[in-house]
Amino acid sequence: MRFKIIFLLLVVSNVILAQPTVNTIKTGDIIFQDMDCGDLCIAIEKVTQSYNNNNFSHMGLCYWRNDSLYVIEAVGKGVILTPYQAFINRSADSLGKPKIKLARLKEKHSQLAQRAVNIALTYLGTPYDDYYIMGDDKLYCSELMYRAFYKANNNHVFFELEPMTFKDPDTHTFFPAWVTYYKNLDIPIPEGFKGCNPGAISRSKHIEFVD
Fold first, then answer.
1. CATH number for position 160
2. Burial class for 120, CB neighbours closer than 10 Å (0-12, 13-18, 19+)
3. pLDDT tens track for 70-97
4. Cα 100–104–105 angle (5° rounding)?
5. Which of 60, 109, 149, 166 has the CB geometry, 3.0–4.6 Å to 105, for a possible disulfide?
6. Is there a domain that residue 164 lies in?
7. Could you give the number of structural domains in the chain?
8. SS3 (DSSP) at 91
9. Is 3 domain-assigned?
């Protein structure tokens, strides 16, 4: 029995060690998050399939500066640098585990990681794109990723754009949360416009998950 217990502890220890730690994260890694922001996050997650049936509604780009880890992200304040710990503390599952997944560019694209980070840093201070319409002077979370990697890839598409939908796939009508949201902005819902979101990018053939 003693040897079985020791063996079990060794197995558990190996599983724990296999999990990514802060020190295994690299500059240019992409971090996906299942945010708890209410009805809008639920709507985003419902209309887009994420990698491995996760529910991603937010994303950012990891960046080491000296000995501190940050996430470059576009949130309500615009494009900002957020300390990694503050980023992962935003949401957690029932066991208190942060609802995040880490992805990395596949080896053949690894040279784009640092370039994309350098480009993303030039957007710090850019206002948040409340309209979720690409091509203006504002950015939402996945739009920041799209643009950074597009430019890093010598102005060639890296993450694909897809027609956006704001409709519930079960009812084929607009989510009430989006109806209210765009009514308050006083613009039409941009149904069918080309765009991007965390779920779609998480399924990109150019990345692989490391956790």
1. 3.90.1720.10
2. buried
3. 999 999 989 999 999 999 999 888 898 9
4. 145
5. 109
6. yes
7. 1
8. coil
9. no
